[in-house]
Amino acid sequence: MTGQTIPCFDLLGVKPDFLPTQPGLFRDFDQINFYRVDKEEFERDMALFRSSRYKFQYEEVVFDMSAHNLLLEQARVEVAAFKARQAAAHAEMQMLEKESMDRWMAEKAQNKLPADEISIMRQDPDILTLHAPLDANVWKVNVADDDVISSTQVVAILEAMKMEISVYFNGDNRDGMERQLKIAKVLVQPGDTVKAGDALMFLRDI
C-alpha cells in the first residue's frame, strides 16, 4: 500500500509551523495521525502548502506513559508475529536477489571477450576503437556484433550523475561526410561500469 502526504520538512523553515532553526515538523512525543482524502482535496492542500498557506492541524494532549506501555504490551504478540514474517520475507528476498545476481554474473562472464582476443583485435590496423568519454555506467547498448551503422548513429547510452550520455563514433569524419561502419565486437553490456578511455566496442570501416 502506498500513498502521498503533505511534506513534513521545509529546508528553509519559512512555511507555517516550521522554523529556520528546525526545518523538520515533528517534535519529541508528537503523535501523528494520517487520514484519507480524495485526489482533489490533496491537490488543493498541496497547492496551499507550496504557497505557504497550509496550516497543520494540532491538538494538545497529555502523553500518558502508562497507557502507552499498556498498548505496547497488548501489541507485543502481534508485533512479534509481524517481525517473524518480516524476517522470513527478508531472508527469501535475499536468496532471490543472490540467485538473480549469480545468473547475471554468469551471463556477463559467458559473454565477456577473452583478453587475448581483445589484444589481437587491438593490434589489427583496420580496427577502430570507440572509447568511453567519461566514468559512467552502461545503460543501453543499441547495436550487436556485425551490425552496419553510420558514424553519427548512437550505439550506446551511458549514465553518470543522473545524466544520459549518447555515444557514437564520429572520429576522423572525412569532409563532414558520414562513414559507414561495421561493429566488429561489442565489449560492454548494460550494467557494466566503465572508466574514461575504456574500450566500448571495436569497429571497421566498410
TrEMBL record:
Top-level taxon: Eukaryota
InterPro entries linked to this entry: Biotin_lipoyl, Single_hybrid_motif
Lipoyl-binding domain location: 137-167
One Pfam entry name: Biotin_lipoyl
UniProt name for this protein: Lipoyl-binding domain-containing protein
UniProt source species: Aspergillus turcosus
